[in-house]
Each structure stands twice: as structure tokens, then as C-alpha cells.
Amino acid sequence: MARYGQYCPITRSLELLGDRWTLLIVRDLLLGAERFNELARGLPGLSRSLLSKRLDHLERAGLVDHADGRYHPTPAGEDLRSVVFGLAEWGSRWAFGEPRADELDATVLMWWIRGGLDPAPFGDRERVVLYVHFRQGGRRRFWLVATPSDVSLCSTDPGYDVDLVLDADLDALYEVWGGRMEYGCAVRDRRLVVSGPTDLVRALPQSLRFSPIAHYVRQAMTREATTRATPVAR
């Protein structure tokens, strides 16, 4: 743990949280990730050994409890929610924009979507299989298997009949998920093409709960648009 040598609550906080990846681990814990493998899948750029080291550090600092193979934020860890999502709000306004090529990881995006897919709009079907094909990038094929109680992500064919097909530009689906692009606009411009039974096609946008930071992004874009549209007083 780096020490700054200044008697200040900000520096004490940075000594606990300022190491690379630490706040992203806290972010994912606050969003419901509990198991080591869940955290590892959501942070593929982080080695498993460093993830273990960071979790041990958070546990020693009293921010995370570890029991029965699960990690949970302590009350002190939960209190970081306003900090983490405060950064989301600030970043949406001042540090966010179109996705860069090095940020477009299809596996990460599909893992996020898996965690934010609500099966309820699909009705009482026993299973709905969504096949996602990306038009560019490395890994291009994924399957989401949604049952009323669970959603699984597969990178190989799970062997079920496909109910819905989503053919997508990777950057467009990232922007839709993150709140920078409206789902309907992406479909109209054929950046996303959904095919399947009409009821399931209509249910898909309702089942996508989108990123937990999407509303901050939309607010920032609305504020920017309003600012541009407001005439400057002379």
C-alpha cells in the first residue's frame, strides 16, 4: 500500500483505494458480483493473482467480507457506493465519449449484458436462446440462455434451438448498453438487427436493463444538448 505522508482523509482513502483495479473490483462487488470467478470474468485484463491480492487487501482494510466462497461489501464498502457512482456521474459528463478500439471487448460486454438481462418480458417460456453475432472483433459468437430463474452466457453452441438472433456492430451495442445510443436508433440504422418471432423481438429491449451507469450518461448528453441549444445572451 502506497503512503503519501499527508495527514488528510483524502490521502488515507487513496492509500486504501488508489491502486490499479481496486475501484473496479469495488464497483463489481457493489453491482452484485460475489464469487472470485465472477469478478475475474468481468475484469479479464486483471490477472487472477493480482485479483486475489486486491481482494485480500480490501478484506484486511475492512471493506469486504469473505465467507463460504463469496465476497460481500461491509458497511464501509457499501458506503463507497456514492463515491463509485459519483465518479460515474462525473465521468459521464467530463470524461466519456465514443468508445475507443482498445475498450471494445465483446466478452466483457456480453458478461455485463448477461448480468443485466431480465427474462420476465419473455413471458412464461421455459427457455429463450439469444444468439449474438458481432460483425467485427476477435470473438464474434455468443449465446445467452435465459430461463425464468437464470441467464447463462456461452461462447460455444449450447445445443438448444435459437429463438432470437442479434447481429450487431460491437461499438453500437456498447453504446446502446452504456446509454450513449438509443436502442431504437441503432435498430433503425441497422447497427443492430434482431430477427425471430415478433413477440420476442419486441420483448428484447424490455429485457435489457442496460448498464447501471446508463442514466448518468443520458443525463450528461441531455445536459450537453440543452447547453448547445440555449442561445447565448448578448
TrEMBL record:
Keyword flag DNA-binding:
yes
Q: Which residues form the signal peptide?
A: none
Mind telling me what this protein is named? Winged helix-turn-helix transcriptional regulator
Report any Pfam family annotated for this entry: HxlR
Please give the CDD domains that the UniProt record associates with this protein: HTH_ARSR (cd00090)
HTH hxlR-type domain residues: 8-99
Which keywords does the record carry?
DNA-binding, Transcription, Transcription regulation
Q: Specify the domain of life of the species encoding this protein.
A: Bacteria
